[in-house]
Amino acid sequence: MKPASQMSWEAFHALDPDMQSGLLQKDGHIFHVLYARQFERDRLEAMGLLATRIRKIAKTVDGMHFLRDQLFHKRAMLYFTQPSTRTFLSFYSACQILGMAVGEVRDKSMSSEFKGETPEDAVRSFSSYFDMIIMRSAIGGLAERMAWVFMNSDRPVPVINAGSGKDQHPTQALLDIYTLQRSFEDRGGIDGKTILFCGDLARGRTVRSLANLLTNYDDMRLIFSAPAALTIGNDILASLTKRNVPYEVSADFERFIPEADAIYMTRIQDEWDSVKGESQTVDTSIYAFEKRHLAVLKPDAVIMHPLPRRNEIDHAVDADPRAVYWRQMRNGMWIRAALIATIFNCAERINDYLP
Ligand code: CP
After folding, report:
1. Going by CA atoms, what residue is nearest to atom 7 of ligand 1?
2. Is the domain of 71 the same as that of 24?
């Protein structure tokens, strides 16, 4: 296959994401991060171990100095033109942990896009000042387009997709896998577990990306529970079938709670409504985890949520040790630091720091 730098945008874009994966690497390690499917099991294991190393090293002052020395010569641009709390702040913190200086655009009205500059030109201009671009955009495919633009420019900086359109949120999937790895480390790992997804599965890019990554594990069972109007996309189900991952689709959430090893709750994503108020016409009242459900949940199961939440998890559930969503959020900082360290090729030095 031709390198991406010799490929038209149309040819690059038309490639299956599995085929694009090789083109998104540099010197054998990951460079651009666009899709969850770029991460295979070995890479997920390595990334989880590195995140745990960074977490342990960061516990001491000497360790923090060591980590800050790793990338003090690099700068990252955070271009977030869609709202975000966790992804923005965890990337910001991850960059700081590794010593990187950070710039940000969070509001298009404060950039030259307000004067009519295209998002493509706006993002391209960041590469004149920064060594990495971390971007969240409502425009599906913009991160992919920018990766291709940079591959064809004299400033080939890496692009990390921090959420694009309704489709992909690969780094959320990484932190979700890291949370599952940690939750099940004394139970034989992720293999053989039943994962129950609940909520707006049609427009939840976190669910789509995580479902992709779970195909890396053996003997999984995935259950997707949502009202008919918000059910999981056929493209995800087709990719599960292709990889021989058994799944069930059901409107009955409560029925599956006792069988789940992990429950992944999501909120209704009404920001994507094509007509204002459209989501309010869907009855979502039964797609909520209530305090009474704790009684039927397995003693060693976990309740996850990418957050933010609305009313799909009762606040009374927060105190239960099986509710791991706050820990899950913090895991995002460590796994994103591990990802950035991997992209800039300093994972080995960090792994060697502790005996
Ligand atoms: N999970 C997640 O993407 O949260 P934010 O939208 O707050 O970044």
Report:
1. 85
2. yes
Domain region containing 46? 4-168+332-350
Q: Following CA atoms 337, 340, 344, 345 in sequence, which dihedral angle do they give, to the nearest 10 degrees?
A: 60
Which is the closest atom of ligand 1 to the Cα of 83? 6
Verify that 129 and 238 share a domain, yes or no: no
With respect to residue 60, please indicate whether it lies within any of the assigned structural domains. Answer: yes
Residue 306 Cβ inside 6 Å of ligand 1? The answer reads: yes
β pairing state of 247-250 and 262-265: unpaired
355 domain-assigned: no
Q: Is 85 in the pocket of ligand 1 (CB under 6 A)?
A: yes
Protein residue whose Cα sits closest to atom 4 of ligand 1: 86
- Span 19-51, pLDDT tens digits: 888 889 988 889 999 999 999 999 999 999 999
Can you give the CATH number for the domain in which 319 is found? 3.40.50.1370
The pLDDT tens digits for 259-310 are 999 999 999 988 887 888 888 888 888 999 999 999 999 999 999 999 999 9
Give 90: exposed, middle or buried? Use CB within 10 Å, 0-12, 13-18, 19+: buried
CA distance 32 to 37: 12
Domain count, the chain: 2
Predicted pLDDT of residue 273: 79
256 and 122 within one domain:
no
Residue 345 domain flag = yes
Ligand 1 and 82: CB distance under 6 A: no
